[in-house]
Design brief:
Length: 504
């Protein structure tokens, strides 16, 4: 057990011998905490919830902070305004990813999120925008509604398995949009393989592991049986699953296209647009982009819905007011539709607040600078890691950021404050912004409004009839979701319950 720590310390010592920062024309780095030899500021950061440390630094040093992590210059951005100025307006400099061996070791270096900024990344982005632009996302509205009603049916059948149903709802939409799968099951291919791949990727890109392997890449050559090299076994499994997950659903689409019965999907549309030898992209690029859609959207969307349900359990008055509005606008004879959305203003506020209240991706994946830069008198060296603290940005401008209060999304005259999907920090910045945000947002809203329309979401009770306590606790990691909790889904209307069970 001692061996991994010996290697880690050795890596830190080697890195400390490298120059970790430079100055340009005497300009300083952004302010930040003093660092220790070898470790830098590793000991200063809450490694479980680093975003909280970054927010504390903001209070002391300002919206842009620099620190050292294992010989690497890291720039923390704690302000949406600064993030827009750098990551959006200077995206030519701030769109790279940190170099390191982890994506290649785990066989996921083709995933768009991990690509360095260059021709392949630009091609992926072009294919994304071609397939997932706002009008394309709107064309799937009937799909979102259909899958939301299937979610309701699943919850009526086994409400205790609601987390599984949320995963299946998210996965079924992604698989339909991307590959044209009409029906998917949680325990059948290809969902099993792709969901496991997404889970292993979250394990593989843990910051601690990435930092050590990047600092001392010779570790990537250790055999799987070597003490402390369990990551190699995870990497082997991930590489196998990545190939399976990329190829099998893609071949499913090609078989359907050859038979003349392929439904509309991102993959079929892109393949149809390939023009013989003159096409500007390959089948391999389509495969890579398609798998990226699932990996990027699967965990975040289901986690957002789980957080929404937790918010409704803990804040029954907000739930009651939202349901009152649905009953007034939609009535009790039908289920909500997208054309109701502009009139469901309080529901919209509840939806926005559930996302803001506990952002599921509190720290964005690090950007990297491709050249030196100067910002407000501070020097930002080439190769710096640039980390947007989304968690803090979601709390900017609020005196009570930890309180769940939908009313904060209204202006003083009672109108909803302006809100555009593309401008939300949770979707990322600049050329690294999430290309699937329009589909993800619409699908999540559809599920949320249907849950409110059909169920009272309450605390569960034990055998003696006593309420089971629910805590406001979340996991940590790249994606954070509520710690598993119990709740009840009580149908609000007998007629509506019967209609859902009958598939009406």
């Amino acid at each position: 057990m001692l061996f991994p720590y010996v290697l880690a310390v050795t890596a830190l010592l080697l890195l400390y011998l490298r120059p970790w920062s430079r100055k340009s024309a005497g300009l300083p780095l952004p302010p930040g905490p003093r660092s220790l030899p070898f470790l830098g500021n590793v000991g200063d950061i809450d490694m479980v919830r680093p975003w909280r440390t970054y927010s504390e630094w903001k209070a002391k040093y300002g919206p842009i902070v620099s620190c050292r992590l294992i010989g690497q210059t890291v720039i923390i951005i704690n302000s949406e305004k600064v993030a827009r100025q750098l990551l959006d307006q200077r995206s030519a400099i701030y769109s790279d990813r940190p170099a390191g061996p982890v994506p290649k070791l785990f066989g996921i270096d083709f995933i768009t999120a991990f690509l360095p900024y260059g021709d392949t990344f630009r091609l992926h982005r072009r294919l994304f925008h071609q397939a997932l632009r706002p009008d394309a996302a709107d064309s799937y509205r009937d799909l979102y509604l259909d899958k939301a009603r299937q979610l309701l049916s699943n919850l009526l059948g086994s409400p205790e398995a609601f987390e599984k149903h949320l995963f299946l709802y998210t996965a079924s939409i992604i698989m339909s949009v991307t590959y044209g799968y009409d029906k998917v099951s949680w325990d059948g291919p290809p969902i099993t393989s792709i969901a496991k791949l997404a889970e292993l990727i979250n394990v593989g890109i843990q910051p601690e592991r990435s930092a050590i392997l990047t600092a001392f890449p010779i570790l990537t050559r250790l055999p799987p049986w070597f003490p402390g090299a369990s990551f190699q076994r995870i990497a082997q499994r991930t590489r196998t699953l990545a190939l399976e997950s990329m190829n099998e659903p893609f071949e499913f689409v090609k078989r359907n296209m050859a038979a003349g019965n392929a439904p509309k999907s991102m993959v079929s549309d892109l393949l149809n647009e390939m023009d013989g030898e003159k096409h500007a992209y390959s089948e391999q690029a389509v495969k890579q982009v398609a798998l990226t859609v699932f990996v990027a959207g699967f965990d975040t969307s289901s986690s957002t819905l789980s957080s929404f349900i937790l918010a409704m359990v803990l804040h029954p008055e907000a739930q009651r007011l939202a349901q009152q509005e649905i009953d007034s606008v939609v009535g009790i004879d039908r289920l909500p539709d997208f054309y109701d959305r502009p009139s469901l203003k309080y529901v919209e506020a509840v939806f926005r607040e559930a996302i803001r209240w506990h952002i599921v991706a509190p720290v964005g994946l690090p950007h990297a600078t491709s050249s030196d830069d100067v910002f407000e008198g501070y020097f930002i060296p080439k190769g710096s890691l640039v980390v947007p603290n989304i968690w803090d940005m979601s709390r900017e401008g609020h005196d009570d950021p930890d309180v769940f209060r939908p009313e904060r999304h209204f202006a003083s005259d009672g109108t909803l404050l302006p809100d555009t999907i593309a401008a939300k920090p949770m979707w990322g910045f600049g050329r690294r912004g999430c290309p699937g945000r329009f589909i993800a947002e619409a699908a999540t809203w559809s599920a949320a409004v249907h849950l409110l329309a059909v169920f009272r979401i309450t605390k569960a009770v034990d055998e003696s009839g006593k309420e089971i306590e629910v805590k406001e606790e979340f996991t940590s990691g790249v994606v954070c979701r509520p710690v598993p909790f119990q709740c009840s889904f009580v149908p609000r209307s007998t007629d509506r319950e019967k209609a859902i069970r009958l598939g009406d």
